[in-house]
Amino acid sequence: MLFDSETLNFKAYAYKDCNHPVELVDESIQLVKSETGEGYTVPPNKILVKLHYASLNPVDIKMYRMAFAITSLINSKKGIGRDYCGEVVAAGSNTPVKVGDFISGLYFPLHAKGTVAQYLMLDTKKPDENVFTTVAKNLTLAESASWPLVLGTAIYMLDGLELPYKKVLVLGGATSVGRYVVQLLRVGASKEIVCTCSPRSENLLKEFGATSTIDYHTPNLANSVLESVKLSGEFDYIIDCTGGSHLFGNISSILRKGGTYNTVVGDCPGYSVMNLVCTFVKSMTRVIASKVGLIPYSYNFMLINSGFKFADQAKKYLQNEDVKVNVDHVFKFEEFKEALNKLESGNASGKIVIQIKED
Ligand SMILES: NC(=O)c1ccc[n+]([C@@H]2O[C@H](COP(=O)([O-])OP(=O)(O)OC[C@H]3O[C@@H](n4cnc5c(N)ncnc54)[C@H](OP(=O)(O)O)[C@@H]3O)[C@@H](O)[C@H]2O)c1
Questions:
Q1: Whose CA is nearest to atom 34 of ligand 1?
Q2: DSSP conformational letter for 42
Q3: What is the pLDDT of residues 286-311, one digit of tens each?
Q4: Which is the closest atom of ligand 1 to the Cα of 149?
Q5: Burial of 206 (0-12, 13-18, 19+ CB in 10 A)
Q6: Which atom of ligand 1 is least distant from the CA of 200?
């Protein structure tokens, strides 16, 4: 597709820094003259995507809270959203897609443009910026925008772990990441999958493969986990999708010697800068203690990164229906603030998706 003008203008949700609200702003992308000279298109190695759907993640709020005033010197229009699904409307030479393909993916650059926007330009020469794939045939476009970060994270958290016959505790089984972790543990033939969740999510997690659940509102979570240990022994792995430090006081009775504790949140869950600093300090201390052998299990604080190429594996899981996607609600582009409020409430049951273009 060729464009009439060198500048493609569009709308996007963005913010200057944490002291300013997220607002609808005017954005633009610079195009180049096409080879035939008849119009404008993208340069070699670049892909222009007309976005149909985006989904929100807690990290979007964390990045917003961490956008101190000084960061507006780098970019005064920081886009929000990392997950997307859309149609390729221009593809430069040397790109793995063609015009008309629908792709979904995860756009990594922080404090850059976001995916709650009408267009996104990808640079395939910078593989550290992108993970994407053509959409899975059995998913709607809204569902296709919902999975990249959370399914990618679930695959990452279990990567390299022997799953068959293991006993696994999933903290936050009903988080969007946790729902995929539970399903992947079932696919991997783990023997016992114990999840923390609210009563409202118990049945769903059992359908996904949980063998038992523990209500995380219980006054003493460690005692409830120890009940499971009494019944069938210590856990081989703890996969923590929600954060917190409730179990560390009893960890030697809960997690077997040589077991693994993988977390994507760390000790201090929450969106405030204090929480993020606390998590960083405490979790890094545990990581170091684990590396030098001061604690009898492997502790890993995991941050998904673009070096971990999960898209093909994820698409296979989705197309084989090994895993199901979970969308809480699809908000319209104009309802962005309601979508953000729902995410921030922390009680979305599945993903918050934003429809950018009518189907
Ligand atoms: N490090 C990384 O690379 C990475 C990547 C992705 C996500 N994350 C982090 O992982 C966390 C989860 O993200 P998400 O998008 O999957 O979450 P989400 O979908 O927003 O999770 C919401 C659900 O969490 C459950 N929940 C809330 N408080 C809980 C608690 N104390 N214990 C257990 N479950 C609780 C609730 O389910 P019920 O009440 O129904 O049980 C709620 O519906 C976030 O902190 C996110 O930033 C990190």
A1: 172
A2: P
A3: 999 999 999 999 999 999 988 899 99
A4: 6
A5: middle
A6: 40
Q: Which helix (H) or strand (E) holds 215?
A: strand 212-215
Euclidean distance between CA atoms 73 and 165, whole angstroms: 53
Pocket-testing residue among 183, 242, 344, ligand 1, by greatest number of atoms within 8 A of Cβ: 242
pLDDT in tens, 217-242: 999 999 999 999 999 999 999 999 99
CATH number at residue 127: 3.90.180.10
Q: What are the tokens at 138?
A: 């059995």
Give the type of residue at 47.
I
CA distances from 295 to 84, 179, 244 (A): 40, 29, 18
Cα(270) to ligand 1 centroid in Å equals 10
In a domain, 225, yes or no: yes
- Domain match, 182 and 102 both: no
| Pocket of ligand 1 contains residue 103 by CB under 6 Å | no
Segment 134-173, tens digit of pLDDT: 999 999 999 999 999 999 999 999 999 999 999 999 999 9
| Residues 167, 261 within the same domain | yes
**Quick one: pLDDT band at residue 271, thresholds 50, 70, 90?**
confident
Sequence-distant (≥ 6) Cβ neighbours of residue 278 within 8 angstroms: 267, 268
Provide the number of structural domains found in the chain.
Answer: 2
Last-in-domain residue among 255, 285, 301? 301
Beta-carbon count within 10 A of 155 CB? 20
Banded model confidence at residue 17, pLDDT cuts 50, 70, 90: very high
Say yes or no: 122 and 155 in one domain.
no
Residue 247 domain boundaries: 150-301
Question: Is residue 320 included in any domain, yes or no?
Answer: no
